[in-house]
Amino acid sequence: MAADWLGSLVSINCGPTLGVYQGEVSSVDQSSQTISLRQPFHNGIKCPVPEVTFSAIDIKELKILDIKNGNARNSSSVSTKVSSAPVAVPKGDPRSVEKVNSPQHCSKSYGERHLDVPGQPKGFRRRHNSWSSSSRGANQVTPKKNGVKNGQMKHRDDECFGDGVDDGLDTDFDFEGNLALFDKAAVFSEIDISERRNGARSRGTPQEQTPSRYRHDENILEAKPIVYRQITVPQPGAKEYCTDSGLVVPSISYELHKRLLTVAERHGLSLERRLEMTGVCASQMALTLLGGPNRFTPKNLHQRPTVALLCGPHVQGAQGISCGRHLSNHEVEVILFLPNFVKMLDSVTSELTLFNKTGGKQVSSIKDLPDTPVDLIINCLDCHENTFLMDQPWYRAAADWANQNRAPVLSLDPPVSGQGQAVEAKWSLSLCLPLPLAEGAGRVYLCDIGVPRQVFQEVGIKYHSPFGCKFVIPLHSA
């Protein structure tokens, strides 16, 4: 009886370790319970040996793919002798557990859909679900659907395609018939009528009407047009600046700037308050220029930055001393240069008293300034009114030291262009509104010292704050 199965095509599953083999039955030995396959394929790849022999204890599942004589009854007897174990199906598979000796299984395998593999002998086909997709070889091709001829496929392959397959899938989709169901002209006509009806209800000119459709990046809330010139002055200066957001900031003359501060002081913004605000803003800018949070960490206490502060006996010098006090409180080594004078302004004296409480160093001679480059130089030597100070020996000596030192220079509240600056700055910090500065002022920054809006209105300035969420902003030449 075993000879009846010679030449049949079978698939043998030996478990996840050994894999799946397919081939033509060359011999069946009932005494030793072995079966041999000729021209075998292992997991879809042709084996290098011409014949492979299997023992019954190694076979987990045996499937007959093509019966030589078409005898379904003999299929049951041979499968029972070779392997009496039930056919293992994956967990969760909708099929129930089958027996290899099921006549329905053998008859259903014949004449159904198969997959062609290049290099296999003629007539050898393997089922789509004979092994899992994870065990396919790299040389396998995409499965192809064989045609049905003369009504050979009378039963669909439930094992491969599952239950409930609609037979109507074999018919072609009627694009023209389905497209005719959509009356495009009527739909667009309805849309146009709806838009005209909504447009007739709206009021105003077509430019004022709200668009009916928006892009994905448009805001559906109506917004006023942006006005970039929000500050107007009665006597514009020689220059105009703009912020990073495009707002125009005009410069003002020193006379208008002085009148603005006088009115602010009359309303309560005293000189002491202005000095404190200027010192805070200038120290924040200096801390940023020194490295900001990357420099000022507990791990860098041994690398304290050094700042040289050059001040004169005037209000600008008092602003610089206030800045030095805040820097010294933030662990910056501050060296304050202030020449000895018999009589100084009260604001300078009070700021100097507070500075000496911080542990900062004060010198009155240029010789006491460091010879090595410092991290930053803050220049407060210049004054808006007393230009005769530029002829003083201490002024020229301090300016020469600053120019010879290779450290960058920050000028605090520099004078207008034309008065001359002996120290060339990399940055300049103006107060409230900028003055028309010279080219040697470097990059211009503006700080907010807290002047109210109505104070601007009293001197004829239409003002809207350009600072946003900051107290110090950069300005660019317009």
TrEMBL record:
Highest taxon above the source species: Eukaryota
Annotated Low complexity bias: 75-90
Residue segments, region Disordered: 72-156
Domain DFDF: 161-197
Pfam families linked: Edc3_linker, FDF, LSM14, YjeF_N
One GO CC term, this protein: P-body
The YjeF N-terminal domain, residue ranges: 253-457
Sections of the chain in a coiled coil: none
Keyword check for Cytoplasm: yes
Family, per entry: Belongs to the EDC3 family.
Protein name according to UniProt: Enhancer of mRNA-decapping protein 3
